[in-house]
Each structure stands twice: as structure tokens, then as C-alpha cells.
Amino acid sequence: MEHIRTPKVENVRLLDRSKGQRKASVGTLYLSATHSMFIENHPETRKETWVLHSMVSSVERLPTTPTGSQLILRCKDFRIFQLLLQQEKDCLDLHTSLLRLSRPEKYSELYCLSFNPNINKEERQESWSFIDLMADYKRMGVPNNLWVASAANSEYRICETYPSELFIPKSASPTVILGSSKFRSRGRFPALSYFHQDTLAAVCRCSQPLSGFSGRCQEDEAMLQAVMKSNPGSVYIYVVDTRPKLNAMANRAAGKGYENEDHYTNIKLHFIGIENIHVMRNSQQKMIDVGEMRSPSMTDFLWGLENSGWLKHIKAIIDAGVFIARAVADEGVSVLVHCSDGWDRTAQACSVASVLLDPFYRTIKGMMVLIERDWVSFGHKFSHRYAHLDGDPKEVSPVIDQFLECVWQLSEQFPCAFEFNECFLIAIHTHVYSCHYGTFLGNCQKERKDMRMWKGLYNHTERSTPPCQSPADFLSAMREESLQLEEELTNHQERISVLTEKPITWEKVVVKRRTRHIQKRHCGPDPPTTDTIPITRPAQDHETFGPADQNAKVKNPALTLPLGQSILVKHLNADDISSDLESGVADLSSRSSSGGEEGKDPEMDKVAFTTA
Amino acid sequence: MEFSEHIKTANVEDVVLQQPLHPPSKGTLCITGHHLLFSDREEKSCRQVLLLLRNIDAVEKRTTESSGTIIIKCKDLRVLQLDIPGMEQCLNIAQSIETLSSLNCVAEMYPFFYRPSNASLQDHWGLSTPERHYTEMEELHERWRLSTVNQDYSVCPSYPPAVIVPKAINDDALKKVAKFRQGGRFPVLCYYHRKNGMVILRSGQPLTGANRKRCMEDELLLQTVIGDSGKGYIIDTRSAQQAQQARMMGGGFESKSFYSNWKRLHRHMERGKTLQESLIKLVDAYGDKSPNMDRWLSKLENSKWMSHVQTALSTAGLLAECVERDGHSVLVHGSEGTDATLLISTLAQLIMDPSCRSLEGFLRLLEREFVQAGHPFQQRCSHSAFSHARLQQECPMFLLLLDCVWQLWCQFPLALGFSEALLLRLATEAYASNYGTFLCNSEMERCALQVKDKTHCLFRALLNPRESEQYTNPLYEPNELAIWPSVHPQSLQLWRGYFLRWTQQTRHLELVQEEIRNMVIEWEKLPLS
User: Fold this and answer.
1) What is the value of pTM for the model shown?
2) How would you classify residue A460: left for phi > 0, otherwise alpha for psi between -120 and 50, otherwise beta?
3) Which ipTM was obtained for this model?
4) How many CA atoms lie within 13 A of B481 on its CB side?
5) pLDDT at residue B295 in the model
6) Contact yes or no for B489 and A309 at CB 8 A
């Protein structure tokens, strides 16, 4: 809230360039904590355009002209809005506000933590357990006498970025796993991604070995041997390095690299040549530039398309998927896939292969399961790649965009093979970026779990909660707490209505309310009422924002994809909660908003005064 | 001339045929005067391939001492391979195919011999005539008349015997105008826009020449067309520079000073050799089997085919915009007025006129605007992309039209009453056909060879209830509005159905169409509730 310099600008001209709109519509622009809203003045249509702050990828201010000041909003879903404001000051304010709002610094600022669809606690819980990865593993026939569930990483001790539940070859002993993980970049040792029941071949994934020029590791060699043995009758496995060979070789100088075929018996190394995230980022930018060209000729377009290299990269990823799928289904040979860290290109290659191999992943639910497994659980860095928070721009890259496009390309070639259509893929794409739901939050399972715990823990009164408390108790305590505060709030509000001349008291309520607001929505039950209008808004704005806000809530569930459920709730109930609480506290105290908020209070007061 | 002279070996046993989408099969090959016939000897799955020799674009042969291989490249872009035992037999066969497929005597072509059991030569030929078209268009009768000045094809050899012209211009004046227009193609009406009474005319270029000749009758004719509306457009399918250069060759354009109420718009459209070469490059690009994305894209770009599609659609859009949005009459011409002119007038009618978008309406439009209007099919479609023969008059203008129509079909899946299968069928039939519809270059030639008495009509056959089912669009919903195509490069696609026709991928797309058709049929069976 403190970042909104001007909540409302009138007589704004908006041009939605992505819709090919030629004439600007005139209307009023509102800025809320989560959305920019544009409502057309035209009395008949009153068309509303909503843009979630987290969907804004850049805000560009053009030099002021006599007609006014221009802002160009570019969104992560490639929409482009042109805004023309009459007052330069408004434009400046809007620019500054949007810049800040579109780059949240903390998870707590994200929309999913304040988004509150009309469902009760049970429904919410249920929705998070909608996708059950264990059920999917069971569907593909594991655990069996070849692959077993491993508790090795149950507390993320071996590999922080892996899920806690993993499947490994039955013959791999804990020593082998541990040794192998030490020899693999970031401890990402070979683990099962997909098991093909028909041929008993498997798709496994890991990260690059820390081999350098001559390093070797017996445990890792044993691990690969174990992968091979888990496919009865096969005499070798493919190791697919999805990087261009040159990149892989360059990595050797840094003590990493690829498997030396002399040291590993019975492996066949195969390079695919998918470029790294930086190349992909630039390629996408070039594609966007091609799309933004004003009236390009066919030649400009095709040349731009070729020059961007985008389709070449898409092809490389599909090639990787096809290679893996052929090996598994046609040759019956297991495949171990890796790139550098094994969370970008590896995720792409493995999931494309799964789509090719298994019709289940071509259904709506199957696609969700697949993304949940190969991307969410195996530590694809969603928050970094899709810039959920203000961070290193070099970490951003359209990795899952490319996977979704690969699926789209396949659905174009096999139109009758997929249960879902293009809209579904676009909806996933949007929500990967939007932070509308918690599914794609964070960079790995552990981080999500930590966040989760933090949200539960961060509370003045609950701080002393013993870590061993059972989750159920924990939730009910939370619920009581929030009800209590709810009452308190009502009291305060009543007092405010009497004592309006004292904005300071009011502001303090706001601060408290805000922190509670967050945890309540995520840990406790949904509040009964009164909460539809975030209280942080200046009182007089309630009329204007209220209805619009409710609209949003009516609309939003329609957009709801019960996508990739969660982890978040599931792990609250997990048995291994205690040890993680520590790390949770430690991890989050650094980002905890408590310090920040106190620091910001004076500024907030100022803003509150100016807007009130 | 007897065909048998060219057939040294009529039958060969144990030939292995390899064709796309099928496993190789062994059987008997037979050459007849018009066909190549292959039949495998499997009793269970008897497969026959009957190929019109006319459909063969190029033959390549490789021989060893004991056997030979013939690769047959067809005008419908299919490539077949025949492995023939015996070198001599192979050479004989190859020679027969080459000779017979390049015979150019129209009167001996297969349509004159084709006698299907379900049709009779006494059946009505064609869908409509200029006379009937005029009678049906009652709105026209006030200001326009049907002229039979070209009754004996003496005024304009490429026009049909009857054409629609302004009422105020008599036949003598028309004869003078014809002398002033290339190929005698004086301005005639090709489309009347019911909404605002504006029209599209087409003609050949005016023969102004280097010394700016004039023709009073021509100026008068055009002035009459404008009438009270005050203004008209001339869309010249050449660039301004090309039009200037044409004056040196005796051609030219309507100068502003003599046609003061007409505004000329130049849109450069490729034709002739350039277009043919573009097609050759495109076909070559997808024939390149190396799986390299950059190479494919640059070859696609280099072929310029998509640019031609874009130009054609946007010029047609411009024409439609002049008539529908600006409300003015338009005269279209290039130089001869038999290629690009017909292309854009056809597309513009498809854009504006809902009655052209049904299956029958579209076939009528093609009959009127391409066949009767004198597109020289014989010359333009004598070879396709594989031929090694020296380019003469070949030009895939009709194919370009079908591609543009397909783009419209993709952008407006509900607005057109016909299916992609129809476009594919037409694309094939234009190059090699059992029917007489696309024979000859003009109505005059067709009349001389008695095409209408001695062959069957393709359009009639397509509308035959048994055939027409697969050519209708199950999703068709007649739409009274104009359908404005998007001509952004992003909106245009490669016509996979045609150019990638003989690949597995297209099979999947055909399955989709099949599926949609079945769904619609199922849907219609449901009782309305």
C-alpha cells in the first residue's frame, strides 16, 4: 500500500496494442495493492481492463509531449498497454508506483498471499492435495522390485533442491547415493523421473558430474550401474547431456563437465545441444521484438523469426524429448538426463519425453501432474526464472514457456491426442508468472516448505509455539488467534468511526492487521466476512474499490486452474516438521518483514496522510 | 497419332513401388495411353495405383546392369519410386512416361476419353453462363446490359461470348474500346455490390503507348460507370514504375489528365516466371530433408511464396475496402488482365459477397472469374514445381488463389461453406484432370474443340451429392458480413495441407477434419431440446 503514490487518475487514454486496438479508449485508472484497473468512461460499455502487478514486466515512460505523458506497460503474457496521461506528475507517480509494485521484494507482497477465492478451509486444503505425486508414481508402477522409494532426502539433507520423496534403483545403497550426490553439482544425484512399464526402461535425471578433466567417483559409477541394473536385460544406458558439447567441455575447466565414457562402463553419452538460459532469454526478447514490429513485411517477419533462433531452440528441446522417448519405448534402454544443474533443460527434456511416452500426460490432470513432478517437485527455480520477486535479471529465462510451446507444437501435429487445448497451456503460462496461486511460488520444495512454516510462525504471540506442536493444534491455535484479532479489529473500526480525527491510531491498526491478514489467509480458516475489502485502503476509497474488488473475486474463480496442488499444506502435515522449523526460522528471519515494516512506518504514515 | 507408338513395353512384372505413407509393395506395372497403372498381387489387400500420365511433372531414372529405378515426381507434389527389374524395360518405361506425359495436344487428352458410368455427355455442362448470371442479377438491369458483341470471339478472343457492360455504351463503342485495351479486354463488369450499388470492373491495360494515345470511348465508358458517385479507383496490379515502362512497349495506364475522376492505386504483384520460380524454391525447401531449422526458415523466406500470398490478400483487401468501406467503383487491371487481375477480383468477391462463400457459390465464382474470364489454364498449368523443362508460360496463379482462399478459410473457419479437401482437389485437377473444365486457355478454344460436348464438367461432378459431402464445411454458418482477412505476417501460415500433403503430419490434420465432421453429424442427430 505504501507504494501507491496515486490511487486514481482520471481521463487516461488506454491503447491495448496486443488486441490490435487502433483507437484509444478514455477512462479512469485505479491503482490497488494488487491490480491496475482501467475503467472506460463510455457509459454503455464501461469496459474494465485489469492488469495484475505481478504480470507487468516493464514500465517505460516516454518523454512528455504536448498531448500528455505516455507510459508503456509490457506484460509477461506479452500484452502491451499504452497509457496517455494528461498530467506529467500523475505519470511520474504512476511510473514510480508501478515500478515498485511490479517488483515485489518479499514473498509476502505477492498476490497469491492476499488472493482469497470464495472457498472454505476444507476446500482449500483439499485443493492443495488435488495432485498427488505418489499416486502418479504408483500409476507408472513404482515402487516395484526395481525401483524403491528412498528416505534418503526426506529432510532435504542430501539435496536441498530435490523433493523429499524420491525413487531410486533398488540396488543403490545409501553410501552410493551419498557418494553420488557429492560428485554431482548441487548434490542432485540420479533419481527416477519416469518409469515406462511396457519396456521397464526408466527416465532418470540428475545434474552434471563434478568430474573436471580427470575426476571420477566410484559411488557415482556404481549409481549409474544401479540405474542400468534396474532395467533387466539391458546392457547399457544412455546418458543424455542436453547441453551443446562445447558448453559441456567448457564446464570441465570449472571442475564440472560430463561423464567420461572410459570410467563408466556401459554408458552411451549423447549431446543434444539445447542452449543455456541466457541464450534463451535473448532469443525470446528477439521474438518479442519481431512481434512488436509495426507492419512488418513477410520477409522482415520470417527473417526476424529465423534470426531470433526461437524455433531452433524449440526444435532442440523436442529433439531431446524424441531421443529419450525413442530410447525408452523403442530400444527399451534407460536414459539418464542432465544438463548443468539439472533443473532447466533437464526438466524440459524429461517432461517432453513423458508427454510423448505416456498418454496420461496429454490429459488435463496429467499435464498438471507432470508439471508438479518434473518442474515443481524437482526444484525448477520458478521464482528466479519468472521474476516473481525483484532479483537478478540474469536468472530470468523462459524455460517453462518453451516446454509449453513444445507441448503446443505437439498438439498442432497431433490434434486429436490431447485432452486440453491451447487455452489451457496459455492459462498455465499466465499463472506461472502471475503468482495468482501459490503453486509456482519459490524455487524448490524445501523453500516452499520453509516459507510455509514462516507464515505460520511469524506472529507476535505465536513465536513461542513449540516446534513439535502438531499441525492440527497449530492450525486451530491460529484460527483462534485470528478470530480474536478479528474481534479486536471490529472494535477498532467502531472506534475509528467515532474518532475519525485520529488517523494515527487507525494507521497502527492497519499495520497489525496487515501482518495478520497474511497468515490468516494461508494458515487459518478464511475469515467470515468484512475482509473482502482490504482494510489498508483509505476509507473513502471503499466505495470506488469495493464493487470492483468483489467483481474480481467473482471473476477469478473462473480462471482458477486447480493446478499443481501443494506441497504447502501437505507438508504441514508431514511428520518431519520439527527439524525444518529451525531452518525455516533462520531462513526467514533474514527476509522477515517485521523489521522492514517498522522501518517503513513513518513513511507509511506520510503516505497515509497524503492519500487520506 | 497412336499412343501405342510410344509404348514399347506395356507391362512389367515384379516392380516395387514406393510411395509416401505406404510400405513398399511389389506388383505389376502397366502403361496405357493416359495412365500409369500399378497393381500389387496380394490377394487380401489388393492395392492399385492409377496415375494420370498428365500428372507427371518430371521423371528421373537410375539404371544398373540388371535393374533400374524410376523416380516419378507428380504435379500434385507426390513422389513415387519404381524399382524395375531389367535395364531395358526400365528405360522403355521411362521413355514412354516422358513422352506421353508431355504430349500437348489438347484434343487427345484424357478428358475426351473419360466416360464415367454415372454421368452422360448430354448432362448440362457448367454451372452458369454469363446470360444466366445477368438474368439473375435484376438489380443490374437498370444501368447495365448484356452485350453479345463478342459473339464470335472476334472482339476479344479471351472473353466469353456475352459480357456485362454499361447500358449507355453501344457495341460499336465497345469495339473501339477493345482496340484500345490489351488483348481486346475492354472493361466489363465482374461484381455488383448489392449494399451500395458499386461495382468491380476488370480489363486489360490501356494501349496508350509512348505518345499518350487516347480513346474517347474508353474515357466515356469509365465516366458512365462512375455516374453520380463522382469518383472511382483504378487498381493497377503493377508498380507505378512498371506501368511507366509498359508505355515503351505500347501498353500504359490511365493518365490523371484524361481520367480525372479516377484515382489510380498501384500495387506490385508478382506474376509469370517470378511466381513459378517462387513455387519451385518453396517445393525445394521442404524437399530438403536435413533437419535444420535455420535452413528451413531461410529457404522459406527466400522462396518469397508467403510474401506473394500476403501481397495478393492485401491487394484484394484494398479492392474490397474501396468498394465496401469507401463506397466507390473500382477498375482492376494489370497488363493482360488474365492473371493477377482475376486473382484479386476473385478474392475480393469472396471477402465481400456471402453468396460466393457456399460450396456452389465458390465454384460458380471460379467458373465465372477464372474459367470464363479467360485465365489461360493450359499455358499456366502445363508444368509444376519439379519440371526440368524450360519455363515458358507456366505460372501458379491459380494455386496462389487457392492458397489465399485457404488462408481465409483458416481465419474464418465458419464463414466458408467448403472444405480444405475441395481446395486440394481443385489444385490437383487444375494440373491434371479427368474433366474438361480446366482444359484450354479461353472459351474460344473450348468452343473450337467442343470441350463442352465431348468432356465432363468438374464443377458438376463436385456438386454431385455423393461427392459434395466431403467438400462441404461441416461448421459452415452463412455470414452476411464481409470477412476481412488479417494480412499480418504472423497471421499467414504455410499451406501444410498442400505443400506437406504427402507426409504423415497431414494425415493427422485430415483426421481432425474427419472427427469434426462426425461430431457435427452426431450433434445434428441429437433431438433439439
Assistant:
1) 0.81
2) alpha
3) 0.87
4) 7
5) 83
6) no
